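TEACHING EXERCISE
Course module: macromolecular assemblies
Task: Read the component lines below, then compare them to the predicted structure of the full complex.
Student: A.B.
Group: 4
Components provided:
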Amino acid sequence: GQQLNQSPQSMFIQEGEDVSMNCTSSSIFNTWLWYKQEPGEGPVLLIALYKAGELTSNGRLTAQFGITRKDSFLNISASIPSDVGIYFCAGDTSSGSARQLTFGSGTQLTVLP
Amino acid sequence: GAVVSQHPSRVICKSGTSVKIECRSLDFQATTMFWYRQFPKQSLMLMATSNEGSKATYEQGVEKDKFLINHASLTLSTLTVTSAHPEDSSFYICSVVAGADTQYFGPGTRLTVL
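Instructor-supplied answer key:
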């Protein structure tokens, strides 16, 4: 099956710094989704990407769907303590249904005051 | 507001008993829901696809007789872990596909089997 390589596995940054994480795959995906998960909670959708090359922002978050359709990145600008959590990318190979999601291994983000 | 709810949020049971977890779609009629399992410090693994009015589709390696799924209405799917054992202890999360082809997840259910 498809595999997503997410990096970095963990990050420790100072409050106010920018953050970047990415996911790559050898397979082509039709949809890329980025989620944030806090302890004891389900993943919360941050950004959804549906077209190759698409660049989408949600507040301080920006994500892009790679041109090759095999990668995506998520940037967080001016990090704050509440950004702490695990960020997952998820890719879907089915056409327009987000039904066959493959998840990355997650990036644990810690923001130091 | 929340799109998906789960009940209970936490459950502790004795080995050998069965546990039922409910997943409700609050804002959408969901013909399809998904059940995931997440072990500590790991990613989400899809267990099965719950189909309203028909049998669930299970991923390879997931025992359908152990993890019973019922999707009796467009807003409710249940997962029953039968004869639970300590190795079944995990975080179980459901999701629905809604809106622009996006999956929304429930808050999860923490199952601990003693």
